Amino acid sequence: MTSHSLLIAGIDEAGRGCLAGPVVAGAVVLDKEIEGLKDSKRLSPKKRDFFAKKIKQNAKAWAIGIAWPKEIDRYNIFQATILAMLRALKALKTTPDLVYVDGPHALPIDIECRAVIKGDSLIPVVSAASIIAKTFRDNLMMVFDKRYPLYGFKRHKGYPTKEHLNALERYGPSPIHRLSFGPVKRAFIKEKRACLII
Description:
This protein is of the alpha/beta class. It has a single domain (3-149), classed as Nucleotidyltransferase, domain 5 (2-Layer Sandwich), CATH 3.30.420.10. The chain has helices spanning 45-58, 69-75, 77-91, 119-122, 124-147, 153-156, 162-171, 182-197, and strands spanning 8-14, 23-30, 59-67, 98-102, 112-116. A five-stranded mixed β-sheet has the order 3-2-1-4-5. A hairpin with an 8-residue loop joins β1 and β2 (23-30). α2 crosses α3 (77-91). The model has no long low-confidence stretch (mean pLDDT 93).
């Protein structure tokens, strides 16, 4: 099999460092080269949306995998991230011959899998996966912002900004917060104590 006929998938996640919402993985198999792909964190939201559309139009296959806050609390963020990545890979409509995954850990799969640190900056198909994951998750957090408007999810997407930490302190955790994460756990305990005093 020549390298040209190899089906190569890129996998990356978004939301690992958040206090709320799921961790989302993207898996992409590109059909053709897309100029200008970068790690999603180095693109403006407008550019990310532009590339997400382009990737979906030009990819041989793309898919999303999600691990929800309860799963993050049950397994830990590392295991939940692997779970989301495996779900994204499984959801692809085509089976790749080779998988590049962003970060230091390869996936426990039968397909050849190479872990590449900063893969989202170095390998275009991993950059594509990072863009797909990030745009999907950001849109999901906009939906959650309407459901839980006290926390400002549409602005920080669940990351631990000052606004988010203040809201957490004031209102306690929402149903989509990760209770195993330090600031959320502290707010949850404080809320429980306040209920006991009342």
